[in-house]
Design a protein that fits this description.
The structure holds 2 protein chains of 2 kinds.
Chain A lengths: L1 H12 L3 H23 L2 H18 L10 H24 L12 H6 L2 H11 L3 H12 L4 H8 L3 H22 L1 H4 L3
Helix pairs in contact in A: 1-2, 2-3, 2-4, 2-7, 3-4, 4-8, 6-9, 7-8, 7-9, 8-9
Chain B lengths: L2 H11 L11 H10 L1 H18 L8 H9 L6 H26 L3 H4 L11 H7 L5 H4 L19 H15 L1
Helix pairs in contact in B: 1-3, 2-3
The chains are: A mainly alpha, B mainly alpha.
């Protein structure tokens, strides 16, 4: 699949519309999902995903097959875009993101379970690097060495980020919804 | 694999063996099979995993995909083809020019002038219409038989003028 992504990137760089469409079909969902978990806002996540793909199109003409695994590179771009947005948001609001901003609208709000809202809230309060680590490994399904490469840390450092992140999530969930975790 | 290392891995990666480090997965499973404490720790990690998995991934809107595709790179094949066509077009022009240069001239193929006889281009043109060019050429500026001009009835004023001119020249 990754070889195919490489080929698709080369074709996209030549303006091959079908290749661009295939890349979007394969990776837009996971990009938006990553951004949504990082930014805790669906509209912001869609804007971020669009920015990520603009960077993909910009890089495609210069893409060299075999130099980087596409999914790793894509996640690094997505991470940087999201961290930039979080930093800008912090500059303008000097506050953590509003956890009530997770949903796109009232329909989504009704569809999303109470548990999911609590988890989103807990996730949004994690420090960014821990949130990135948990999102990459748990939600995006990256291997530990891939996630470490995306963040630019060693596997041991990634493990530490993950452990601290999961412990913080458990503590936060116990705080906001004690019944959810039971005795765990 | 120690219980402490098992706890570290469960803390970091959760209870799903798929997420565990490749090199430690077998040892983790082995310890879990033997240790009730290890299984209890695994179950705690699984409870958190279950909560995290309750957060659905919202699919992107079709409008977003359309916006992204609208911004995809333009087709570069046309520009490349254009660049490749420039030398081809130049080569074609040169080839065409050389080909025309080597074709025999149509004027040489149908000579209008008899060999050994000189004729001016005007002679050739008039001759094709049956005009005797020397017979129609007037004696330019001279109608005086004294000077050896053709015997044409002279106009009085013009003849006088010429004589006066020649007289002045002689004087």
């Amino acid at each position: 699949m990754d070889d195919a992504d490489d080929v698709l990137m080369l074709r996209a760089g030549r303006g091959d519309r079908v290749a661009c469409q295939t890349l979007v079909e394969r990776h837009l969902g996971r990009t938006t999902s990553f951004a949504q978990r990082m930014l805790a806002s669906r509209p912001d996540a869609e804007d971020a995903a669009q920015e990520v793909f603009l960077r993909v199109w910009s890089a495609a003409p210069r893409w060299k097959a075999g130099t980087a695994r596409f999914t790793t590179w894509l996640h690094r771009v997505a991470m940087n875009v999201c961290l930039d947005r979080i930093a800008r948001r912090r500059e303008t609001t000097s506050d953590i993101p509003d956890v009530a901003d997770h949903r796109a609208g009232p329909v989504d709000a009704l569809a999303e379970s109470e548990t999911a809202r609590h988890v989103r809230t807990a996730l949004a309060t994690l420090p960014e690097t821990q949130r990135v680590a948990v999102t990459l490994c748990h939600f995006q399904g990256l291997r530990n060495d891939e996630a470490a490469e995306v963040i630019g840390v060693s596997v041991e450092a990634l493990e530490s980020l993950l452990a601290r992140g999961r412990r913080a999530l458990r503590a936060r969930l116990r705080q906001i919804a004690p019944a959810l975790l039971g005795n765990a | 694999m120690t219980l402490a290392r098992l706890e570290e891995i469960l803390d970091a990666y959760g209870a799903d063996p798929v997420r565990w480090p490749d090199g430690e997965r077998a040892a983790m499973l082995d310890l879990l099979a033997r240790s009730p404490d290890a299984r209890r720790r695994r179950d705690e990690a699984a409870a958190l995993d279950e909560l995290l998995d309750a957060v659905p991934a919202t699919p992107p809107s079709p409008a977003l995909a359309a916006r992204i595709l609208a911004a995809s790179p333009p087709r570069r094949i046309a520009r490349r083809a254009l660049v490749a066509l420039v030398p081809l077009a130049a080569a074609a022009v040169v080839t065409l020019w050389l080909g025309l240069e080597r074709q025999p001239s149509r004027r040489v193929a149908a000579p209008a002038i008899a060999v050994g006889e000189y004729s001016s281009p005007t002679d050739v043109l008039l001759g094709s219409y049956g005009v005797a060019d020397y017979a129609t050429v007037p004696g330019i500026g001279c109608d005086d038989s004294v000077l050896g001009c053709p015997g044409v009835a002279p106009a009085a004023g013009k003849s006088q003028s010429l004589r006066q001119t020649s007289g002045r020249v002689r004087a």
